[in-house]
Q: What sequence folds into this?
């Protein structure tokens, strides 16, 4: 006998089960309201893009592209990739759709699945969802401040408490090359104390050593020169203004001179929002972002400034669940149950149910059950106040029996008056 395969989700991928949906719904609702308030427009880009978009945009030497990207050749011979993040896709869309002709800045937001072939661990998946906020066409530091404020607002609104915002500036093409030299010479003299990955990074991108989570590298990092001390005048002035905005907004930020973030397109401001929980549980960074003034040009567009942020939706939902942060998205409370008995009543009940839906009155039912007793048990479990009983006699004579579960009273209502009467009853409560 052949063995039947029991299929499972792929490593690092997961179902979002019904019990998690209310949390996701609450997060989506919060995102909708905040992006709407700040006048961001929704955009959706394809899950598949040319792999080169990310090699060029995110950076061919980044972990995301070098180690984690799901890349494959199509039947037509194109090398494509499942998006590991949104920013290059949105910059591509900005260029492709001539958005530089729109009034600037163009503020866009999106959300959806992203893919990174990472080693799965707490808060780290191979398919995960991000929301991404992107502002293109404005270099003013108020935009950086606004994006940090929005990132903070999303979490705050969901009930997160001990939020920390870390910020840094990593300069631009004017000051960073010089800083890289200083940093290289610092690390070169301590090369033996670095992990093998960082010994390699020393050659390609010494800034990434600052991002390394290995303990031995952290120790070396502690004495490393800080880019803040080597910013050019323009980057320095920009960063100073960003911090002034954060002060004005009274946001709880700290300067982390070693925050660099592992993506190649960043210039000037970078930031991350995390939650320091009392229990010590950590999902890692919840929202990360920064400025990317060179990205649009790098991808073939005009010289266009950009700044954005992205949040990991699973990480946020996991914390909401763990702490019973209110999902607030409970199914609307149902006060009416529609019970039916017999074929004709069942058919007519389905029509009545649809009338309730059009009138936006929540009604519970269990059409699949035939026994009235079983249906009343369900109604009891739901704790509804009113049960509408649609039996054979009722169906023949076009009326319905209403039972008040609190008082036990029963009365008959003409079928064409039921919706209006029930509407009046629930709005009274
Ligand atoms: P990122 O830091 O690579 O930045 O990702 C942003 C957020 O996505 C992280 O802070 C984390 O919450 C979530 N995330 C990343 N990888 C995973 C994973 N494997 N599993 C679960 N969650 C994950 C970006 O992607 C940039 N595009 C952010 C940005 C937008 N910068 C400017 N604009």
A:
């Amino acid at each position: 006998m052949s063995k039947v395969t029991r299929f499972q989700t792929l490593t690092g991928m997961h179902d979002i089960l019904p019990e998690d949906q209310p949390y996701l719904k609450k997060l989506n609702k919060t995102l909708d309201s905040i992006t709407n308030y700040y006048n961001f427009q929704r955009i959706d880009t394809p899950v598949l893009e040319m792999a080169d978009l990310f090699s060029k945009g995110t950076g061919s030497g980044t972990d995301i592209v070098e180690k984690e990207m799901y890349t494959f050749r199509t039947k037509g011979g194109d090398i494509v990739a499942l998006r590991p993040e949104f920013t290059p896709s949105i910059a591509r869309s900005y260029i492709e759709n001539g958005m530089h002709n729109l009034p600037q800045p163009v503020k866009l937001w999106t959300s959806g699945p992203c893919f990174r072939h990472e080693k799965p661990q707490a808060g780290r998946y191979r398919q995960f969802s991000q929301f991404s906020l992107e502002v293109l066409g404005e270099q003013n530091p108020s935009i950086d401040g606004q994006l940090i404020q929005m990132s903070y607002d999303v979490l705050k609104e969901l009930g997160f408490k001990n939020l920390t915002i870390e910020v840094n500036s990593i300069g631009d093409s004017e000051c960073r090359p010089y800083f890289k030299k200083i940093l290289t010479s610092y690390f070169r003299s301590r090369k033996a104390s670095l992990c093998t990955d960082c010994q390699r990074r020393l050659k390609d991108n010494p800034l990434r050593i600052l991002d390394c989570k290995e303990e031995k590298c952290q120790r070396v990092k502690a004495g490393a020169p800080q880019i803040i001390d080597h910013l050019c005048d323009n980057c320095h002035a920009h960063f100073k203004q960003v911090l002034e905005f954060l002060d004005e907004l009274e946001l709880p930020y700290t300067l982390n001179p070693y925050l660099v973030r592992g993506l190649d397109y960043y210039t000037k401001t970078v930031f991350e929002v995390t939650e320091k929980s009392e229990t010590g549980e950590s999902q890692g960074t919840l929202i990360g972002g920064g400025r990317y003034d060179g990205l649009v040009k790098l991808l073939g567009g005009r010289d266009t400034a950009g700044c954005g942020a992205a949040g990991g939706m699973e990480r946020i939902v996991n914390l909401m669940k763990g702490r019973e942060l209110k999902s607030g998205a409970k199914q609307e409370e149902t006060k009416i149950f529609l019970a039916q008995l017999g074929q004709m009543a069942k058919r007519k009940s389905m029509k009545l149910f649809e009338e309730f839906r059009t009138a936006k009155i929540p009604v519970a039912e269990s059409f699949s059950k035939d026994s009235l007793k079983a249906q009343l048990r369900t109604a009891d479990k739901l704790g509804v106040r009113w049960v509408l009983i649609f039996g054979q006699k009722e169906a023949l004579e076009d009326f319905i029996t209403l039972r008040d579960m609190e008082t036990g009273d029963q009365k008959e209502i003409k079928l064409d008056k039921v919706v209006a009467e029930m509407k009046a009853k629930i709005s009274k409560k």
In short: The mean pLDDT is 92. The first strand starts at residue 41 and ends at 42.
